[in-house]
Amino acid sequence: MTDVKKNLIGTDINDLQSLCQTLNEPKFRAQQIFDWVYNKGVRSIDDMQNLPLGFREQLAQHCTLDRSQVKSVMTSKDGTQKWLLHFADGNEAECVHIPEKTRGTLCISSQVGCTLTCTFCHTGTQMLVRNLSVAELLGQVISARDIFGEWPTPIGNRHISNIVLMGMGEPLYNYDNLSKALKIMMDSKGLGFSRQKITLSTSGVVPMIDKCAEDLKVRLAISLHAVRDDLRNEIVPINRKYPLKELMESVRRYPDTSSTKEVTFEYVMLKGVNDSASDARELVKLIAGIPAKINLIPFNPWPGSKYERSTADVIKKFAEILERSGYRSPIRRPRGQDIFAACGQLKSESKRACRTK
Ligand code: SAH
Ligand code: SF4
Questions:
Q1: Which of 96, 234, 272, 343 lies at 20 to 30 Å from 305 by C-alpha?
Q2: Per-residue model confidence (pLDDT) at position 126
Q3: What number of CA atoms fall less than 13 Å from residue 272's CA on the CB side?
C-alpha cells in the first residue's frame, strides 16, 4: 500500500474487496465497510463496530473517511438552503436543497465551473474548471445527510428524497466519476435512491446520452432552450457539435432502451429571444411522439447577464400552447433567489481563490 491514505468515501464494493484482499481480510468485510460508509454514514473508522479491533486499526492506518468541508450555509426565506463545499485543493462547488411539501430535492454539482459557455448561465462564465471526483460527488449527498441527521439511509420519508444533477457543470463531461458515484447512490445497500428519483440534466452530449441509457437509466432532462439550430448554436454552443437533429434522435432512443418513461425538456424563458408563440408551436413539432414534460424556467438574472426574463403573460401563453398539445409544462417557481441559489446562478469563487495563491 502507498503512503497516501485512501478515502473510503468514493470507493465501491470492488475497490473495497481489493482493499480487504491487500490487508489479508476476508472478502465479506468489504460489504460491512460499504454499509458503514454509505448506509450508516459513520464519521470514524473506529465506529465500524462489527470489524475486529485490529482490522479497524489497520484500516485507519491506510484509509480516511474524509468529507468535503461545508464552508458556508445560506438559508433562503423560502426554506431553500445553499451549501458551499470546500475541497482539499482549495476549489469549491455549490449544492442546493429545495424543500417542498411532498419531497426534498438535492441539486448537486458535477464540476467546478463548466467548460461549456451557454450565454444565459452564470456557471458558464467561470474560467476555472475541473471534474469533481467520485468522493466529491458522493460527498454532496453525504454532507447533506449529515446536516439533516438522516442516517442510516431511511426507508420511508426523507429530507432528501430526490437528487437532480442541475448544479454547476455538465454531468456528461464527467461521465466516469459520475457513473461510479451514481451506482453507489442507487445501491439499496448504499445511499438507497431509486433511479427514478435521480434526474440528470444535460445540455446535449449525444454519445453520452446513449451510454447513460445503457448504463445508468436515471431520469433524463435535456436543456433544450431553443428549437432552431441557428438560435441554439448561439445560446447553447454545444449545439454546433451535436445539432438538434442528432440530439432529438438520441432522446428518442432513450426511453426505448431504458425503463424511464418520460423525458424532461428544460426551456429557459428569455424575453424576445426564444419565447414567441411560434417557438412554442415549433417545440411541439420537434418533440412529437416523445413522452415528455417541458419545464419552463423563467430566466434567473445574474450580474452582467445580457438577457431579461420573459413576462409572466408570455410564459403563460407559451405553456398554454404546449398544454393544448398534450404536454405537461409546469412553470418552475424560482427558489432561493435571495441567496443566489436558483437555476443558473451558481458560480464559485474558485478562480479568484487560485489567482491570489
Ligand atoms: N449543465 C447541465 C446541468 C446544469 S444547469 C445543463 O446545462 O443541463 C441546470 C439547468 O439550469 C439547465 O437547464 C440550464 O440550462 C438552466 N439554467 C442555466 N442558467 C440559467 C439561468 N440563468 N436561468 C434559468 N435557468 C438557467
Ligand atoms: Fe454548463 Fe449547463 Fe451552464 Fe451550459 S447551462 S454553461 S452546460 S452548467
A1: 96
A2: 83
A3: 3
CB 331 within 8 A of CB 315: yes
pTM of the model: 0.93
For domain 69-339, give the fold: TIM Barrel (3.20.20)
Q: What positions carry a catalytic annotation?
A: 94, 343
Which cell is 212 given?
Answer: 447513460
Q: How many CA atoms lie within 13 A of 138 on its CB side?
A: 29
What's the CA gap between 284 and 297, in Å, rounded? Answer: 17
Going by their DSSP bridges, the two strands 104-107 and 69-75 should be labelled as: unpaired
Integer Cα distance of 247 and 145 in angstroms: 35
**For the chain, domain boundaries:** 6-64, 69-339
Of 94, 109, 111, 114, which is best to mutate to test ligand 2, by the most ligand atoms within 8 angstroms of its C-beta? 114
Give the chain's mean pLDDT: 91
Residues flanking ligand 2, CB < 6 Å:
114, 116-118, 121, 123-124, 169-170, 203, 223
Pick the CATH number of 6-64 from 1.10.150.530, 1.50.10.20, 1.20.120.430, 3.30.428.10: 1.10.150.530
Q: For 44-101, how does the pLDDT look when each residue is reduced to its tens digit (9 = 90+)? A: 999 999 999 999 999 999 999 999 889 888 999 989 999 999 998 989 888 999 999 8
**CA 294 to chain centroid:** 18
What percent of the chain lies above the pLDDT cut of 70? 93
- C-alpha 24 to ligand 1 mean position (Å): 48
Facing residues of 107 across strands?
96, 164
**How much is the pLDDT for 282?**
98
Query: DSSP readout, 322-338?
Result: HHHTT-B-PBPPP-SGG
